[in-house]
Amino acid sequence: MTAASGKIDSYLRRVRSGLRGLPDGEVTDILNELRAHIVERLELASGPPDVAIESVLESFGRAEQIAALYVAENLVARAESSRTPWTILRSLFYWSTLSVIGFFVFMICVVGYGFGVCFFLAALMKPIHPEGVGLWYRNDPANFSLHVGGFSGSPGERELLGWWLVPVGCSLGGGTILLTTHFALWSLRRLRQPMR
Amino acid sequence: MAEDHDAVDKWEVQLRKGCLELAILASLWGGRLYGLELLRILENESDLVISEGTVYPLLSRLRSEDLLDAEWVEAELGHPRKYYRLTPAGRRRAVAMARIWARFSEKLDGLLRAVLKEER
Q1: Is A64 on the interface with B (CB under 8 A)?
Q2: ipTM of the complex
């Protein structure tokens, strides 16, 4: 093995380790394409390959950055292709294993989707259990409370919305899920790093 | 002053990044190209690429959005190459983006003329 081919292998190993989580076939395809590019650049370069390989790899970019870009593009493409909360959460979960920012975005979206589902559930449960589900309010300075859902109002609590809970719950649920989806996609798009 | 330079550098990176997709689609307008050929065109015609490897993830995304097709072709001499070509959706996207760019740059050029004249 020449020094140049050893450096190419080592560079591609670094790319591969940054591509974890992508399907094996895709990783092989990516590495084959990058190898073909680097080898052809090297053949066109002046000077001995063992020396030229340094500048070829330098102009190609950092292995970790290339891998991160692939992962980012893959995450965004996966999330945008379906736009369902489940697919988006799976992409965000993968991102959360790679960075702290990804972890926070994932947590915010879990909470956002959680609230959305709760609003929907409250709207759905209202016709089934009209007396027990509602937006409950307790005007007690020592123990103030405002909460949605529940199967029985505690003593001293008053229900505020009545049957309005159904349209309000659906609107708030849909709105929260939509907002969370937009936030998730916006965050994922920002994950695509600048070209440097 | 250094902050000014930083801000301008960041803006330039974002600008290049935003234009790269259009430049790739436009480069492929004339027919199929493999990565290195595409990069040569981008280097010679657009001054957009900073590091070569960053083009490949973008090609991968354009492909996943069905704007590009890709196929491996065995070269007579040398290595197999992965060729990219525009799909019908890619051609429509290129036309739409080129129209927006032409309209946008024409108007902006008018505004910039005064700035550049003052600078001289």
Answers
A1: no
A2: 0.83
Domain boundaries, chain A: 1-61, 83-196
The whole-model pTM stands at 0.72
Instruction: Establish if A25 touches chain B: CB-CB under 8 angstroms.
Output: no
* CA A192 – CA A33 distance, rounded (Å): 21
Q: Which residues of B touch A (CB under 8 A)?
A: 10, 13-14, 16-17, 20, 35-36, 49-54, 56-58, 60-61, 64-65, 72, 78-82
What are the tens digits of pLDDT across the range A6-20?
Answer: 999 999 999 999 888
**DSSP line for B54-119:** GHHHHHHHHHHTTSEEEEEE--SSS--EEEEEE-HHHHHHHHHHHHHHHHHHHHHHHHHHHHHHHH
The pLDDT of residue A2 is above 70: yes
Structural domains of chain B in order of their starting residue, each with its CATH number: 2-119 (1.10.10.10)
For residue A126, give how far its alpha carbon lies from the nearest alpha carbon of chain B (Å): 42
Structure confidence by residue, pLDDT tens digits, B26-58: 999 999 999 999 998 988 887 777 688 889 999
